[in-house]
Amino acid sequence: MKGAREYAELFRESKQHGKLRLKVGYHARGKTFQIYVTPTDCAGCLGSDMVEVYGITGGQPGWTEAYGWLHRGQWEMDFSKLVEAAKAEKIVIDAADKARMDTLAEEEEARIKGLLSAY
After folding, report:
1. pTM for the whole thing?
2. Contact indicator for 53, 37 with CB cutoff of 8 Å
């Protein structure tokens, strides 16, 4: 939904990053994304140990929800660094995928030409 889709597609899975827990989810109408601050780098923290700092700020949950910062603080800059790193990694992965697809297309074209020329 508004403010969740980009981050959910960028991070794709829930994961702990230092004291930030990124939670990616889905429902019938789209992707969801929440950020929690945890007391330590603990992947096993319980919900009562965490504070949600990014999540639903308005709209009808499950239908028209909008996402944004619920609390302001240092975690915003830390999250911005994670976003920049993820975007840079995505560029590298996308370039490698394109190169692989181009190679496969060239190999397929060569196979077809070889088969047809041998007719």
Report:
1. 0.74
2. yes
